[in-house]
Amino acid sequence: MIDLHCHLDLYPDPAAVIRAVTDRGIYVLSVTTTPRAFPVMKRMIKGAPRIRLGLGLHPELVAQRHSELDLFPALLGETDYVGEVGIDGSPPHQGSLDLQERTFRRILKLCSDRGGRILSIHSRGAASRVLDCLEANPNAGSAVLHWFSGSPKELARAADLGAWFSVGPAMLRSGRGRNLIAGMPQQRVLTETDGPFARDGGQALYPWDVASAESGLAKVWGLDPAGVRDVIKQNLVRLSKTRGSASG
Ligand code: MN
Predict the structure, then answer these.
(1) pLDDT tens digits for 134-152?
(2) Host H or E run for residue 29
């Protein structure tokens, strides 16, 4: 199983979750919400070969934490993955939209300058803005739009720009989410949980809950869950080979 977007550092007992995903052989991209969390997590995942760590600055934290952007250039050399980054245009964060966009563009430029990265990107309420930024920075790397919730037209534009998509149980529960997923290029879809932020029936999702995303995808794609797992695995292999290079 593959969880391409979760927050291992935000579970009540990260070490226990790290052991559990390692025992189960789950591939995890653990994203961070601030650069300060990156070195801490890097130490924690030592010896867990299937866990990758993203360097992030979450758009919902940009207003308070944008000064931590200064830590980005030095830490960027330590990973092929950047996330969680992006723009949030929902009402509580509209006041910082311009600062969020400047921050996101700065991060994309840094990625371009370093030969590209694989990016896990948040775009709630700001899909067009995010796509404008990606279009202006074509060498930033391979963009993976996590929990995409834009319009079908924005989805088509994202696909044309070569974006990838990571989808989880919560997105697959809604009819709107399933319609968007049906419109995504199958060879550029990955699974995620967004745990522990994303919840199912009041419980925080854990990386092994991508099993539920696999069964949801099976229905959307008309495959059995094993077939879905094969597709997702091949997609991850291709995404990893891009190593964030622009041609990906
Ligand atoms: Mn997240």
Answers:
(1) 999 999 999 999 999 999 9
(2) strand 27-30
Nearest-CA neighbor of 86 among 53, 125, 115, 50? Answer: 125
pTM of the complete model beyond 0.90: yes
47 CA to centre of ligand 1 in angstroms:
24
What is the per-residue burial (b if ≥16 Cβ within 10 Å, else e) of 217-228? bbebeebebeeb
In total, the chain counts a number of residues equal to 248
> Does 86 have pLDDT greater than 50?
yes
For 45-60, how does the pLDDT look when each residue is reduced to its tens digit (9 = 90+)?
999 999 999 999 999 9
**CA 151–ligand 1 middle distance (angstroms):** 20
- Give me ligand 1 centre to Cα 219, in Å: 25
Sheet holding 51-53, edge to edge: 2-6, 27-30, 51-53
